[in-house]
Specification:
It is a single chain. By secondary structure, this protein is an alpha/beta fold. A hairpin with a 2-residue loop joins strand 6 and strand 7.
């Protein structure tokens, strides 16, 4: 079985590429200098700076590996080509929460980019799944522990 594709918007792809570049070019050198400096202080067995620098190095390398894996399996959604007739990844939707009579504004993104605090919901989340494929005027139903939530699609827009 192949690895899962990481669906990204162009903005998400650029963010991950920039972070990877930062880590590889600047952070690695910075941590290597900290390790070198800590080594020069002598006894490594009781050297807290050395241990902290090695931990930071381990964290950076793990994040680099994670980012490389995300980017290797990335599939970029070209937002300018998103069909605005139906909801799909890469579009912005304005929906009406029918229980609370409240308008919500979301960008539908792949799971690696999701950030509900910034209004980015995953196509794999319950709400995202229910919205995918819906048209303006249609109602998406989402089963939650609190019961069925209903959202009416008001608008579908380009996210950029």
């Amino acid at each position: 079985m192949g690895e899962k594709k990481n669906i990204l918007t162009y903005e998400g792809l650029r963010k991950y590429e920039d972070e990877l570049h930062q880590l590889k070019v600047f952070k690695r050198k910075e941590v290597a200098a900290k390790i070198k400096e800590a080594r020069e202080q002598g006894d490594l067995s009781e050297n807290a700076e050395y241990d902290a620098a090695k931990d930071e190095q381990r964290d950076i390398e793990a994040r680099i590996e994670e980012l490389e894996k995300i980017l290797k399996n990335a599939e970029v959604v070209v937002e300018d080509e998103v069909d605005l007739g139906t909801i799909n990844i890469g579009c912005r939707v304005i929906i009406l929460d029918m229980d609370y009579n409240e308008e919500l504004d979301y960008k539908i993104v792949g799971s690696t980019e999701a950030n509900s605090l910034k209004g980015k919901i995953s196509n794999e989340s319950p709400v995202g799944k229910a919205l995918i494929g819906k048209k303006v005027g249609e109602i998406a139903e989402v089963e939650t522990q609190a019961g069925t939530m209903k959202y009416k699609v008001l608008e579908i827009q380009r996210s950029n």
